[in-house]
Amino acid sequence: MINDNKKADDKTSDNKTKERLEIVCPAGTPAALEVAVNSGADAVYTGFRNETNARNFPGLNFSPKELATSVEFAHANGSKVFVAINTFPKADNQELWHQSIDDAVAANVDAIILADIGLLDYASNKHPDARLHLSVQASASNAEAINFFNKTFGVKRVVLPRVLTIPEIKKLNSEIDVETEIFAFGGLCVMAEGRCSLSSYITGESPNMNGVCSPASHVRYEKEGSKMVSKLNDFTINEFEKFETAGYPTLCKGRFSTDENDPTYLFEEPTSLNVIEMIPELVDAGVLALKIEGRQRSKAYVKEVVQNFRSAVDSFYDGNDIINDLGNLAEGQRGTSGAYVKKWQ
Amino acid sequence: MAIEQNNNKRTDITLGPLLFHWDEDKARDFYYKIADEAPVDKVYIGEVVCSKRAPFHAKYIPDAIERLQSAGKEVILSTLQLVMNNRELNEIRDTAGFADDMMIEANDLSAVNLLAGKPHSIGTFVNIYNIGTLKVFEQMGAKNICLPGELPASSIRTLAGAANDSNIEVYVFGRLPLAISARCYHARAHNLQKDNCQYVCGLDSDGMNVNTISGQPFLAANGLQTMSQTCCELSGEIDELQSFGVSGLRLSPHDVDMVKVSSIYRDIADSKIDKTEARTKLEEEVDFAEFSNGFYHGIVGKDDVNSVA
Fold it and tell me: Which pTM was predicted?
């Protein structure tokens, strides 16, 4: 028996295929937010300067006051602001997360991006008018799961886990009354997000509990003979010859061996996701928003990626060719379409 | 062998779902032996890692359930961890259809949505990190909750203390599932794609060791799942878990003598042996990996405080 989801918001379902594809851009600082807005972002997503968000990096993120000012700026320039509060509160210390939700509402943000079910419960009860988006960290990868979040907490949009092919997304969109946002560019998690504790197994700190993955505090680069070796908490993640650029040792993007095989990129190569050329298929699949990863990235990076996506989306609606000029910004200068294409799996 | 009638305080020893792709005969024999000889109270059964394996398990699971139930074990149907398409969703819907007759363990929110309002279990793959979340699941009918393996003792204590309507279970033995993906790492390691995987995950009955370039033991791959290379082992923490009010100790099946392993946990849960004896006996049984208990102690997950001390 399928649960009765008829009370799901029909306003979103009517609109979702008609609306133009939205570009959702990262901003790690108020200055990056200004750049994103000025470069053509339809929406900018941010986080507070604490462990409530999954990019809890030193020197990054917003105070409540900075957020309120940035929201005013964005609204004056026709852009929306979302706040990600997408880590999982500690068992007996939910106050920081609750306070952050209250602060986001007070700052007049356009949506709060949540993953934890306890927080969704809090936000939907305390702030029934707040627009809630489901973070990728909630790992809602199918119609039953998404309808659960819609029915129980009134979630209006889901950021899909990077595990689905485009045909699967299209089918999914025909079965849910919730907007879908997908990752379009940047770092690529190869594991279902929000269900990965590899980082805490190796370093003691994880995305779910600490808002970090493969934290910089545990990273070392060491010279061993002619090679540069990248390490995470003393584990060798990769090694590079002189002519190679030593990449950041994200633990699932290194070279590893099995008992029978020599070292290979067993989980994933150091590549970036880039779906800019797939915009027509994504629109056809009913996707409403494209998310660009990288709140930790520079203003220059944000500007270039956002401008490229703005131009690509506008070209699509104007009937012109989409130009992919983002190759040089990809990790390892390589782009992948990830799980959106079945052969990746 | 009938299990002693519970008094209220007795801690359950439970057997989690088989995470590895054992062939039909091996798996059937395993469950028959568990039914006949192992001092476990509850057995979770069903494919949770990869839907491609499910048809193989369907061949022995009905027989295994019958044998386990006849032996007095409570059997709970466990479900898929990552549900990505309608074929998989329909399998979950089919399983949820048994909810009036059997307890079902949800490992994804899709199953939770289908089981809400009926008594059910929540598996270790569902994120329950705090009281707010625990309460939502209890309100939806969760009667048994196996907490995520990443949680430290302080969180387990808080959650076990806050649980009113549910039993709290903790994963105390076995390689810990750390991640799940759409991509199959077993197939990838064998230069195959998932669609044509030839079921190479079946070659590694305890998972495939993944090591660093420097030869350091790192992780283990099990099809779509990535696991700890170390074997989680919390026999030394059981008296504390009991004092928190944890009522179930979950053992994850491995290709070792699980009757002996479960007997050791039964004995330590009943204070018949001490933690040193339990660890020594477990070391004799487990040869596929080192032990770890780091997550419990709030440190690096792969570490073992017993060997550090």
Answer: 0.92
